[in-house]
Design goal:
- With 258 residues, this protein is α+β, with helices and mostly antiparallel strands.
- 17% of the residues lie in helices and 43% in strands.
- β17 and β18 form a beta hairpin.
- The protein is globular.
């Protein structure tokens, strides 16, 4: 478990949020699955919902914008920035695109929404009053971040340069890189295998759970779906799942301490 009381270092994952087609239904689902409570913003913030575990922020939800481009429901990942204007300019210089230029979000901070060279969206967040999620690696909170890329080497080079990170290749048969700052692991990048069929490049958020089997049962009983088997791995018992709107994420039960 990690608890945060100040802004995270530049380049570290710092926030996750859900673009929801039916935000009230999303709040009900994630409350049932993860036990989240909510703070719901006023009209000036478009009804943005902050999710909490107890009194600690763990992520957010935002309704689809009626005048925005059509987008499927999805979870998004934001990286911490010390200077969102400069980092957004670096995104463009490294071959990405800036979809929504840097903007100030009241007293809470500043943000930009970008895509990497493979077209995968991600965000930048420069903390003000909102330091990003205040808890991770605890049941009901984010614990890992994984990019599925159609060109893993290109993605590796882009994010390593943008985030000031190194990239270690994992041994084994699959092409997988771990982004790191020093000894701190930030995220993973996996090459999409053609055998997966029509699988679009995307960031997937892993949420920690106390029991993968019980959480999977809660997900399906509240309208979500299992997208894979529940499997054991060296990193824990995990499954790919979708909420009732089709937004993908993963759940992982860490291995029992020895």
């Amino acid at each position: 478990m990690a608890t945060y009381r100040q802004a995270k270092p530049a380049g570290a994952p710092t926030w996750v949020d859900l673009m929801a087609t039916d935000i009230e239904a999303a709040r009900r689902f994630y409350h049932a699955v993860f036990g989240w409570g909510y703070d719901i913003g006023g009209p000036e913030f478009g009804g943005y919902t902050t999710a909490r575990l107890g009194d600690r922020m763990t992520g957010g939800m935002t309704p689809m914008q009626p005048d925005g481009p059509p987008m499927p429901p999805a979870w998004s990942l934001y990286f911490a920035s010390d200077n969102v204007q400069a980092d957004a300019a670096r995104v463009a210089g490294l071959g990405g695109k800036v979809l929504f230029p840097p903007m100030v979000v009241g007293e809470f901070g500043s943000m930009a929404v970008c895509t990497d060279p493979g077209g995968v969206p991600f965000g930048l967040w420069q903390a003000g009053r909102n330091i990003g999620f205040e808890v991770s690696d605890e049941p009901g909170s984010a614990t890992w971040y994984e990019l599925y890329s159609s060109d893993a080497k290109q993605s590796r080079d882009f994010y390593a340069a943008l985030l000031g990170a190194s990239a270690d290749a994992m041994p084994g048969g699959m092409e997988y890189y771990v982004l790191k700052q020093g000894d701190k692991q930030l995220a993973g990048i996996m090459q999409i295998d053609p055998s997966w069929g029509d699988f679009h490049p995307t960031w997937l958020i892993y949420f920690a759970v106390a029991s993968a089997d019980q959480t999977a049962a809660a997900i399906t009983s509240h309208g979500g779906r299992l997208m894979s088997r529940i499997d054991d791995s060296p990193f824990g018992r995990l499954a790919a799942v979708a909420d009732p709107s089709g937004a993908l994420f993963k759940i992982i039960q860490p291995p029992a301490a020895s």
